[in-house]
Amino acid sequence: METLSNYFLLSLAVTLILSVAFVEAETHYHQFSVQAKTVQRLCKTRNIITVNGQFPGPTLNVRNGDTLVIKVQNNARYNITIHWHGIRQMRTPWADGPEFVTQCPIQPGATYTYRYKIEDQEGTLWWHAHSRWLRATVYGALVIRPKLGSSYPFPTPKIEFPVVLGEWWNSNILDTMRQAVFTGGAPNVSNAYTINGQPGDLYACSRQDTTRLSVSPGDTVLLRVINAALNQQLFFTVANHRLTVVAADAVYSKPFATNIIMVGPGQTTDVLLTANQSPGRYYMAARAYASPKNAPFDNTTTTAILQYKSASCSGRNGACSRPILPRLPAYNDTNTVTAFTTQLKSPSKAEVPLKIDESLFFTVGLGFVFCNPGPRCQGPNNTRFAASMNNVSFVLPRRTSLLQAYYQKIPGIYTTDFPAVPPVRFDYTGNVSRALWQPTFGTKLYKLKFGSAVQIVLQDTAIFSTEDHPIHLHGYHFYVVGQGFGNFNPSRDTASFNLNDPPQRNTIDVPVGGWAVIRFVADNPGVWLFHCHIDTHLTWGLAMAFEVENGVGELQTLEPPPADLPRC
């Protein structure tokens, strides 16, 4: 009888576990209508492209293990795709979204349904348009919470609040892009930065709609900070409040306290804040970290308000006093950036690849195309700006996507001869010979065998100016095993690699005038874009792509394309 009873209890326990496992994995269905909307910002009225008429777009709330099915209806007048930034997309690159890389664009009036599963990911990611520069206004948060029955590896916060940092132009963003592409020069800088779509109190005609967060004394707040800015790294802080970093790019990190974080375009950082100050009003604020020399940038500051519910507004007619404004670093304060990034570590010993199969060295940076003086030659010294990796400026196909060409074996779309090392070695961060200024142009991919362990040295260059570049790898996380300044020296710098608890990211800021080294295992078949997340630089060609071959069996093989995949 006791044996039967024990068996029953065991069976019941197994049934409950299976039931929980079954219940916790949900499928979320969403409709995204890409459409124009009239909005007012900075005393001006203009039309922007949005999802569902919202700016920013809707926040997607899911749990680890859930599946998303998102039908995108393009009701705008421009082609569009949506990228789910940081989602691994295991075997489902058809849902990744970059235009002409994994799909042809969704044309006006057409639809496409993105289907993918969240696999072993928790934290803050985001989604955005990946078609020309439309992500200036087409973006939103993607929040992945732990599975039911699991919890955060830190005390559960009372409040969770997305802080989506963006850039705002008074002009039509595609007109801004077209002008830059036509002239060959740098685009006009933005007119404002935004927090959750609002510029904040320090801009004209903006005070009434400033983003606000109300807290009670003692509240713990999880701020999910996302840099959705098109072209700018940003410092972020909250007046008089310490921030405890607990995750970056939807990977938990070893907690550490700081006053300032720096978030590159594409990156996310989760921070805990305790409402432990005198009841009052405090600004959350963000402004540029601008590393290139003599390059124009938007030198304004966006704000939101952290307001204690118990704070009284005792001014005339019940007006509130001006919130406390925090001190932000100087725009070129690389020391603060370095102090922040070097503290990011995995919470425990990491499974870093140690035996490397593919050792790659990629230079990243801007260059020039020599041209005859005229309206289409308005870059520095009668040139047009270009950008490249290993001196190859990436050109997207137009006839079909790279992934379709790979899957259907369509010839003539791309080649697999992207160089593993720079064609010419030079003093990358010193004075660069004029003979090396102009890149070649091509659609070149690098082939990886399934399961291969990959190391990439990313080296900044000084052809135009040294610069911090946020480099994003689609379909993967990677370990950042080393960073430094100057030219990477393997005999000197390899010894300093962190192979114990390096951070995992999907977007790495290569230090200005320096280098970063990443490692990952090529365990996700398909074609995956690797590019600078400054959209101006992507347009100029600062990108390449990996062709990752299938492994053995169904679980290591690319899924077939969906029936509704858009046609070019």
UniProtKB/TrEMBL annotation:
Its main location: secreted. Gene3D superfamilies: Cupredoxins - blue copper proteins. Pfam families: Cu-oxidase, Cu-oxidase_2, Cu-oxidase_3. Residues 34-147, 161-310, 418-550 form the Plastocyanin-like domain. Its cofactor is Cu cation. One of its GO terms (molecular function) is copper ion binding. Belongs to the multicopper oxidase family. Lignin degradation and detoxification of lignin-derived products. This is Laccase.
